[in-house]
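User: Some background: our group keeps a shared notebook of sequences we're curious about, and every so often someone picks one and asks for a predicted structure to add to the entry. Today it's my turn. The entry only has the sequence so far, pasted here. Could you supply the structure so I can complete it?
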Amino acid sequence: MERNFLMSDRSSVFPRTDAADWWQVIRKELKGRPEETLFTEWWEGFQTPPFHSAEYPRPKDALFGPYSWHASCSVGPNDLPGSALEILNTGADGLRIRFRPDTDLTEALKGIQLEFLRIELRPEELSGNWIAHWKSLIERQDQKDLNTALGFDLWAGLSSDESGGRSFQKSLDELRILEAAQLFRHPVLIDCSPYEESGARMDTQLGLALSMAHEVLEEDSTISPDQLHFRFSISRNFLLETAKLRAFRELWSFYLDTVNRARTEPFINARNSRRPLSASDHHGNLLRLTTMATSGVLGGAQNIELTNHHLGRSEKGEAHLPVNILHLLRFEGRLDRLEDPLAGSHSVEALTEQLSETGWSAFQEIQNRGGASRAVCDPWFSQRIAQEAEAEQNAHDQGAYPVIGSSLHPFGSDSMKTEPNAHSWPLRRLAESAEKNLGR
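Assistant: Of course. Here's the predicted structure to add to the notebook entry:
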């Protein structure tokens, strides 16, 4: 069948309409009901319109170029080396390794080819025998070719009273003594995942990440921006979480311009949040992990990690499923080596811009209160996160943000034990209150 018009002449077939034309039609259909009901309110003061018009300019350039991201898994002190090798045999090409100070890494990483992996070491302390073992390992390699990172959280366990706990300055001094910059490509971790899982809103997460990075770069001039790596938890809201990572990329470039530092590409680790997971519908969690991982890929994360869908409890025969989600996205979904497929998207670009603005405002507020290390010890900051968590919890309890399998269409389970949380920033799961009533 021959076409009777050229694509370049499609405007004559579909007459151009502007925003005013659309609103005229919408108001007619509303029949007197308020227009505000069509706006999406993500949280108080942050909303988006029902449509985006081509009249308003938007970025069209790719936010990031083609890249290959890592499918990563976490292993604990008791998983070395056997479980680590098993995980790698499932196709993972990244490991986040938690270990004790006396761990012999030469034995723990025996048989693992470091040059082909993203390796993040997460020691309990910045001292111990593990340092000599790690030096011995990397001396056998050309360290420049190793994609390695130190996953120690400099802000974890801080106390406003130095006699009662660590201070940020002490942690940074330990990092200098360790000479981490000589041992890792990314020696400094900026980890916002505990705050997200405790209920921090996206603008708070973005502002805190910038404040933490600023604190490190201001305190130690020998550390360069490209030596930092960032970890964000990705929750269930697909569009907004995708825009969050993109907004951080924009904010990072803007921040570096503001402090007159050369622009660098931020290395972003995306990890699924446990906050929206269900304790009663584990297989439903696999679907959530899929959307979270996709947000990570489309947001430009270079390393993506999915946790166990059983909320910390290992289930024999299912441990491979989370990493297989990443394989499906990479090989079957062809979401590998992408060049920003969302560049120019009206909805995503608009959300990115709005989140960038609110994230920068949060950064300024944290800085005005003394910076990140003071904020995480300040009751003001913990109260802020608690209030943000409560607002989302109220929306969930009212049915606005249900957790399928728990608060909506519950799927009962004989055992709903979850991994205990001893972190100073508690895991606040949305469905926990609803699950207590299951089976009654």
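Suggested note for the entry: The longest strand covers residues 228-234. The chain has two domains: 69-150, 168-177+188-440.
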